[in-house]
């Protein structure tokens, strides 16, 4: 009785509150920091995270927060991938499998972000956890046999990838199980997480190269992003770079199925050689390609890196007549100086000479433990 | 039927999941940054935030996140103060008025933090929003007349304070309404938020001095903390410094009722003169109090500030015979150099002389627009 | 005798040393941080500092350091302006008036920087200190009457400007003395330092506007740059922006005489309205100029600032029907969100509507205490 | 004649200038950042750099700058060690071997720093470069046979150490030459630079352990410090930690001869086990040594590191019944959380149990590639 009497004034009160609160300015400016990884010839480079949780499974934030975080951190797109079968807070939040995406999508629209609908099919290993993105309805994925769940996702046109293949032991070895092989053989597996959260999986990297699967790198965030990834000032979540023809959901979907991705993780890029080379070339520029040597036989090459990735170079061979730095880091957003010196006893240069400094970029991984080879070129004269 | 058949395997599955997930190391190190505001003679200085929201009213995080954030940011205590009458997500989360505190408290215990139970009594102005903390049960506060709600809090021994007195216009003028006067006259109002979120209220500051109310500064956070306060690297949430006899809930409660607080907001401290002076004295030290002048009549005083507050000093008077910096900032965690010079024509010092440099600390506010006066002393000789 | 015997082996030894040391890698990478202030229509924006000292007057570094610092900090050009009549270290370094420039220029060439030859004609006030840049020989400026020194600079085609007009009291009022008027009347004064080191001079600013003089902002550095300007991480020296037709010494000289400059000082730009407006327009972009309003009557404008200047905006008027932020900072290198909301009671928008948000940029000073007015425009619809 | 006529007014002018300039406030606040490496039982920990160059040999700054830099960076002491036989700028600065120290010392006194007089005896390898510090007069070291130079330093009571033993190839292998052996056998060699500039020499490290030589780590700075070591925000110069009985020149001298030093280089400490252990123990504290386990069998150990060194721990063994982090970094100035969990199947704890988590600190090098072993202890109960 007491409670009933209260309900009427309260409903009016809540209405008044909504009006009152909606105009309040007790807030802070919202700020976005773009991620400087350039577009490559023919494609726009979108920054995406295809693995996010909310309070509707076992995450600790309301779904709209995932949109705010993605905008704040300079992403273009994110997927909501709450567990289909596992809702940690179901005692407090009745299960609604499609609800978290709906909430996140509304917030994404306001922020001009692309929200991707997804779900995590959750089994112990094997086969482990499997994400399906670009699906329309999560409910059909809620079924006892994981094969049926994956099939339901594929029936909706979903893009399916295997999450953290070493789960539950992040430092362990990834095993290509018969269960995964079965999904792969059926054409139901489109990609693998080469990076999940703080962990890189070299086996997954190699499988993507060998079996022509799409490489993904995702945060798998549960806490607010700043709690999981905010330790150091410049840290960022792992993300999947998607090379699209147009900035749209369909653009992303097409690129994922076409394997046009790379992974940006900590200070590394992981991907097919062609994409890493394109990013390097679009990022790095020799500012003074025409160099005069001083009387001392020294020339200083100025190299600018406009990306947000430090490129860690080590010399990949020698050059006749000249010494050049054996190790140098092309720091993000900076110009560095490479000192080129005529070796003792080497002859002076008669005419302008083309030099190509051979380097290997240790943190652009075209295969496990294999860096991209590049050259920095200039014309030098005395 | 379909759903029923699923439930049994799912409940087992959830149990397996819990086991699987509990040991997973796919996470990051948790890091806490202490706030360097020193203890003062006779009291421990606790850093507290008495105004936090969760998804159980109109916040955007699960209650445990408020504990994680508080630990991460170096706080000692926080209060959960969800709105009593207003649950923005009630369509998804059935209302349970005591639930958010219970969840937050469990997380706080693991982290050795003090969790304070509270609630926000929410009316339009007047009287506006009122927080009650150190209460035992929120349910009795859910009543149509705000007077009854406040009385219910006081009956439980609660500490009651008025939130953001300029609401809903943060830049507006605060009015001491008859409604507030009535609560105050009854002894039901113990404090006022001098700072809420990004806004300082000078009227509230003066009321606390005149009416012997407790000064509070709180975040009123709704989003994840890093989204609301993470714009610049060194930003922190506003907080209430509580000078306690012991680090315990009862210690905080006693200090609040005894008005032993100050407010740390952006780069300012706000409070009674005695507390701000104690903090300044405990923070600042002249490293070379015995100074010799050089032949040029110059001496360099080294002053170290071990706190996390930049103290902004401006000269508050002149000194016979010597010039000294008119403006200087004692930067947080740094030692700065103050150049003392014999004025042109001033006589040389015959014997060691005690000098007291008079300053006003602009950002230690003992009243609205009134900085704390201090002296930096040294013995000088030639 | 002893010393003579040593000299022969030593000269050989020094030669060996030179060879040994020249190839040593016991060093660090040299890094340059570009200053992001964009070019403007028709002109390249060069970053220049026309006031630098070395050990050849009363500075504390070898002249080559001024080139290294300028390169490191992203400058395009710097002037060496040692005092003509005042060599603090003459007991250790015999006076050679042209020597410091020659040394600095050689280092500048290696680094692809433009080195400007200059000198500071140093008298007590009036007329105070006067810089002459773009001169060929300092020796003729070493004469007892300052008028003769200025004339010698003008005879060489020099550009002459008055330094820190409040000297020796940085906080004092600048006086347009008869001595300065005499130089000005003769056409011998081309500019004034509106900013010197940490000090802005509003009188100088106004004189430049009224008398059509060139505005300059310079460091007047004596210590290593990092000691004078390295307090906070993001601090930079004051500098003169020069809007040139080509990146060359002649390009700078022509622009200085044509008054195409602005001053970048701390977080402010100071200059003629036309140049500040061009910089603002080249820096700021509305990313979503076509905006849809949500059901709640809210739209979020995304504004990116690609420059290294925080633009501090305050509303400069109201808009019918909509509220928009009264104060907002377009942070350097960031995108911020401006919340536009239909006012209570205002009618819904029938068709797409052009809105122009009127602002004043407080820290783009087109005159003392007068900020540049701008509009941020968008098309809005519901 | 012309020049003579000028000299008279100039000498007066310079005098006026000195007065004018001495009071000028066109400067910035001078700021010192202390280095948080704590004192150890029985000794004060001084931060020292025994290898600095100035324009009086081949450095690029006036000697007083070395004092300013040392103060700014939180050092207690520095040595001026210009080359005895090699003055790169002798064409401009006539050679005076004791001059640079005199100038630096005057500046150091004003700043309350300890200036050590030294010199670098410079030969090609072998024996390479040798520093002598705590000498009284550099002139007797200027002799053709390096043995005579070292003997002259020892005759003055000097402390002699071998610089950068891999010179001129920083990445090369260090060779204990017969020349060095001869000096060592005579008791003329007291220490070796284990770290010089950016390079650590493992051979030197081992020699110091085996031959009971003093370990040193020095900057060997030539440029302004910020140009050589200012690339990243948190970088510091390499330095020698000296564990003294009193903060004085004699205190440092005694400690150097007694081998009470360690080296702080990048993110590493290098030294005898006893000193590194003392620093670790004085830096690290378990905040909650009495731990209760939650129902889930988990306890969170809070460990604070008050030093400026990140301690990188890896597990050095297992514990019966409990899992604990295999790798964790105790970040400088932070508190981190170590998750201790009862292993699956392990019995509950009956009574309070003492646990000692065994770790190896990878970056506290007690020998080349050998980290210090430590334990983190707590009492745990359920």
Would you write up a description of this structure?
Chain A contains 9 helices and 21 strands. Chain A is 25% helix and 31% strand. The longest helix of chain A has 21 residues, at 2-22. Chain A has 382 residues and is an alpha/beta fold. The interface between A and B is large, with 63 and 63 residues. Strand 1 (31-32) of chain B pairs antiparallel with strand 19 (335-342) of chain D.
What are the SSEs and their pairings?
The structure is a homotetramer of 382-residue chains.
Chain A: H1 2-22, E1 31-32, E2 44-49, H2 63-72, E3 77-80, H3 99-110, E4 114-122, E5 129-133, H4 146-155, E6 159-162, H5 178-185, E7 191-196, E8 199-200, H6 202-211, E9 214-218, H7 225-229, E10 239-244, H8 249-257, E11 261-265, E12 268-271, H9 273-283, E13 284-286, E14 290-292, E15 298-305, E16 311-315, E17 322-323, E18 327-330, E19 335-342, E20 353-367, E21 370-381
Parallel strand pairs in A: 2-3, 3-4, 6-7, 7-9, 12-20, 14-21
Antiparallel strand pairs in A: 2-10, 4-5, 5-6, 7-8, 10-11, 11-12, 13-15, 15-19, 16-18, 16-20, 17-19, 20-21
